[in-house]
Every structure is written in structure tokens, then in C-alpha cells.
Amino acid sequence: MRHRVPIRGVVFISLLVTMLCIALTAFAFSLHASANSSVASSSISYNSITSYRHRQPTPGITPTTTRRPKPTPTTVITPRPTPGITPTIGVTPTPTTGTTPTPLPQTVQVFVEPDAGEQIILNAINGAQKSIWLEMYLLTDTNIIQALENAAGRHLDVRVMLEPHPYGGGSPQSTLDALQAAGASVEDTSPAFTLTHEKGMIIDGNTAFIMTCNFTYSALNGKNREYGIIDTTPQDVQGAIAIFNADWNRTSVQVTDPNLVVSPNNSRTMLTNLINSAKTSLILEEEEMQDSSMEQALVNAERRGVAVEVILAAPSGSSNDPNAPGIAVLKAGGVQVKEDSQLYIHAKMIVADGSLAFVGSENFSTTSLDNNRELGVLLTNAQIISTLQQTFQSDWAVSRSMSWGY
Prior knowledge:
Layout: H1 7-53, E1 108-113, H2 119-127, E2 131-136, H3 142-153, E3 157-162, H4 173-181, E4 185-188, E5 199-203, E6 207-211, H5 217-220, E7 224-231, H6 234-249, E8 260-263, H7 267-277, E9 281-286, E10 289-290, H8 292-303, E11 307-313, H9 324-332, E12 336-340, E13 344-345, E14 348-352, E15 356-360, E16 364-365, H10 366-370, E17 374-379, H11 382-398, E18 400-401
Parallel strand pairs: 2-3, 3-4, 7-13, 9-11, 10-16, 11-12
Antiparallel strand pairs: 1-7, 2-5, 5-6, 6-7, 8-17, 9-14, 12-18, 14-15, 15-17
Helix pairs in contact: 2-3, 3-4, 7-8, 8-9
């Protein structure tokens, strides 16, 4: 049997369905409106950021945008030297012409030949405890050669370098052979120089003999005027050792000790500076006067009011004097020049103003200053300078003046 639904019920159900449809439609419309609003908001936000990023900065105002700073590199960068400025770290400046030399403090002694004789050299060799190093132009004194052989026999470190081609001929080969047979180490001097004219000896690595004299009979027992400096100043000794090692090993050497005057490294500059530093007096004893630059420096000193006195070696056994042209230049410039007729002036000595002196192997010749191996030393020791001055005055008194135009 079928049941009929009353009409009222149908109407009620229809109204309920209609209301439900209306509610669903309203809800759907609300969701759509909210979605459109969200999209619009996102678009505004993006456009604002884009506009900020492309905005031109206002003139005169630095943007304050914060960015993470780049890390500072930790690599140490050595700056390039400024043009015209010489770095001073670890570098001894080369003396400039006209600058007064300033030797460092020294412990030194002087001996004068021919008064001292050969005994002062023999005592040094015989008293050596460890080593004797000799770099010499001439070695012919038989007593000194014997002392060196004895030292080698005592197992000391004896090293001898001799010039193989001394001026005037002759050869040291037989002497070197005899020393080598006795146990010494021997070498020719370095071929890097025209001549090795140095007169140097180093005892036990702590005493340097810097001399004008060769180890010959005429230098130590004859009638030569010679000077020798016995230097125990550590820096001077180490400088002499460095020169010896360089020449022994055929290498170069950098001279950093302001006391040492070394050819061909710095002697021309150092001696020119010494002459240019003089204010009142210059005295010189020189074997040779054969370099125009040094001659002119002496003339310039005389012209600025310095009393310049020079003693040169007199020519031996000949009327021809190789110093004649130099003497003429000095005399023309007002310099007082004499030649010693009693002693042979083999010395190379200068005293400026009674306060700064030079003793060494350097002659006033172009070859000696520029091409040879030579060794000398600057001195400020008052007692040594007094000895040099007194010896000069003694020699000046017996020397003869050179006539004008000689």
C-alpha cells in the first residue's frame, strides 16, 4: 500500500532546499572575493619592492641600505718603495761625495816602518793559536815565510793568497809550493782584479792587520816609509774576513762597514769624501799621484782655504818621474808638494783636520781605485793620528820641495 506525502511537507522541503542553495551560493561568492583581494595585495607588494630597487638615489644623500661587508683580506702586502726614497732597513747607505765619513768606534794600534821592523809581524804569526789568513801583493821575506811554514806544521789553519803577476815580473809560485808542502792552503789571488795589491793578514779570526807594507825585506827592514794598523774591532775584522772569503772562493762581497776603504768597491768615494770633509788641513803621504779626479779634489780643497801638504815618493834610479803630471796639477793649484829623498814613500796615508785619518794599500791612481783589490781603514783614534802627524812632520822636514812646473 503506498503512503502519500502531505502537501505541506512537500512545500517545507522545497523551501529548505531553496534556502540551502542560496546559502551555498553566498559562501562561494565570498571565497571568490577573498581570493581576488589576496592577489591584488600581492601585486601591490611586489610592485613596491621593484620600485624601491630601481629608485635613483637622491643627490647628496648616501643610501643607507645595509649589506654584509666583504671580509678584509688578511694577506700581508709589502708596499712598493716610494720613488726617490731609499729603504733603510738592513741597508748600509753608500757614502755620497762631499759627505763627511763617520767611522764607528774602533780598537786599533799602529806601527811605523822601517822603525818597527819585521818582528811585529813575526810575533803575530808565532803567537797565533788557531789561524793565519794572508792576502798579499808580495811575500818574499824569508823569516816570515819560515814562520808561516812553522805555523802550518803546528796544524794551524794557514791560508795564503798571493798576486801571481806582480808589476815588474817575478812569480810567487815557489813560495806557494813551499808553504803548501808545509801544510798550508794556498791560492793565487782572484783574477777578477787587475792586481790584488792588498796587504792584509787576519790572526785567529779576531785581529786584522791592514797595512801599506808588503812582506818584503825592503818594506820591513829597508828604507820604506810604511804604516800598519792592528785592528781588533769586531766589525772591521768581520769585514776583512768577508773580503778574504769572497776572494778565496771567487765570489763578490758587499762592503757594509763604514770604517773599511775597499777597492774597487768604495775607495774612490770614501777617499774623495775624506778630502772634501777637510776644513783646515790635509796631510798626505802617497807613493803615486796619478788620478786626475783625486788631484782635482786636492786642488779644490786648497782653493777653499784648506792647507794641503803632500809628500810623494821620489823616482828611484831614473830621471823620469811618473808622478810629474800630477805634481804639475797640484802645484798649479797652490798645493805644497815634496818628495822624500831619504826614505822611499811607499805609504798611503791621509789625515784631515787632525781628527780623521786613512791608512791602507790604495794609491792615488786610477787602476788602484777602480780595478785592483785594495784594503784600507778610516781612523779617529787620537793617539794613532798623533803618531801619523808626527811621522809626517819628520818626513816633511827632510823632503825637498818640487819646483814650479816640475
